[in-house]
Amino acid sequence: MEKKKRKIFGWYKDQRLRNKILFAFIFSSVLPMVLAQIFMGYVNFSSIRGKMDELMVNELTQMAERVNLTLDVYTGLVYQIYVDNRIVKNLNQLMDKTYEEKEVARREIYERLQQYDTSAEGIECISIILRDGQQLTYDFTNASTVQSIWQGYSDLREITPYIDAQNASGIVITPTMRQMRDGREERLFHISKRMYDYEDLEKGSIATVVMSVNEQILNQICATNRSRDPEQEYSVSFIVNKNGDVLSYPDSNYSGISMKPDASVEEFVRSTGRLRGKSIAVNQYEDPQMEWIFYNVYDREYMFREITMVQIMTVLVACLAVFLSLLLIFVLTGMLEKSTKALMQGIQEVQKGNLNVKVRVDSRDEFGEIAENFNELTGKVQELITEVTDAAQKQKEAEIHALEAQINPHFLYNTLDCINWMAIDRGEYEISKMLRDLGLILRYTVNGSNQEVKVSEMA
Questions:
Q1: Which of 320, 348, 369, 455 has the fewest CB atoms within 10 Å, counting from its CB?
Q2: Cβ-count burial of 91 within 10 angstroms (0-12 exposed, 13-18 middle, 19+ buried)?
Q3: How distant is the alpha carbon of residue 51 from its chain centre?
Q4: Residue 365: phi, psi to the nearest 5?
């Protein structure tokens, strides 16, 4: 590990100045900034996702409360029917009286049921099914006692709402069913309750009331933030019971069906053509009273579009800052390389022996000072070399002059010696002696004229 570190540091030390600054900038600024952006983005998205999920659950809770309040209206109407003494009295007459009295009782019950037409929106039909199979049905859409949603049944004791009511002690809400009326399919959910004669409870249940309500009542409650165009839809809310039966869905074609037990909520929503191709999140709330499950499926990208835009803008600003920083680094390092290149060229010229080189650095920073000192140094070196050269030249000239000074007396001495021998040949001994003395003087001058002379030697 230590060798690897040394190798890395050695490689870094061998890089050029620009690369060193770039690597230092990347590892000290760019990399920490990128990691910080990733971390902050993750934290922000996690926090917002948690807040969004919490908001959606709260919305589902409010949706469930609105559904409960709406259903309370219809269950209250059912309650009014099965405690209505006039209806109970007429039901008893249907079972015990003569034909004429039965018809009177039937007409009074129908008149009573017609009064519920304006009680609440969405009521399609009210049926009262006696335990002996007799039935009284008033269809509010057709305003008819004959044409109704139950035309296909010969005995209404076979319909699901009636059966559900027999197996419960209170009011029962039957999930949305698909039913045909006048050749068209409708989605209805039903509220049913067994009726009793409270003056004679020993009779047991005398009839069962079934109120049929249009599924659009639930659909309207779930329609918050719903776009008319499914392609632009970003949120889908729907209701399912604990058995997986779809009670209400934005597309009514899927109301009244059962979800596949092995399919997830995301798969079910996509199979209906909603939020297809989008990244979706699912939230749910289970109503403890009705045991209905309220789902909300939303498009994450749409919900997070603002924070995503902020994140993108932050990244773009960061990228712009990095780009400007890199541009500034390239400009500065370019200037530094220019200065160092000028210095290196000057040093190389000096190495070649060219001391006349002058380094030009157009700045007053450290490189400018180095260039100025370099120029001064080469100038002084050149001056010293000139001085040394001049001194050596002068020394050589002095030596030559000294040699010349030594050679000239020797020629004169030789000339005197020749004259001396000529004088001897002629017998001029006095002249010869004088010439010898003069030669001694000259010899002394040549050999040691600048040395100290003893008195004895002068004698």
A1: 455
A2: buried
A3: 18
A4: -85, -160
Edge-to-edge strand ranges of the sheet holding 292-299 = 246-248, 235-241, 292-299, 280-286
SS3 assignment, position 353:
coil
- The structure tokens listed for 269 are 């929503």
pLDDT value of residue 116: 85
Identify the DSSP state of 254.
G
Pairing of strands 123-130, 205-214: antiparallel
E strand or H helix at 452, and its extent?
Answer: none
pLDDT in tens, 55-80: 889 999 999 999 999 999 999 999 99
Beta strand extents in 355-438 (DSSP E only): none
pLDDT at residue 33, as a whole number: 79
Please give the Cα distance from 359 to 356 (Å, whole number).
10
pLDDT tens column, 301-359: 887 777 778 778 888 888 888 888 888 878 877 777 777 777 777 788 778 778 777 77
The answer to whether 363 and 339 are in contact (CB under 8 A) is yes
Residues in the chain, total: 459
Beta strand segments in 41-183, E: 123-130, 135-139, 172-181
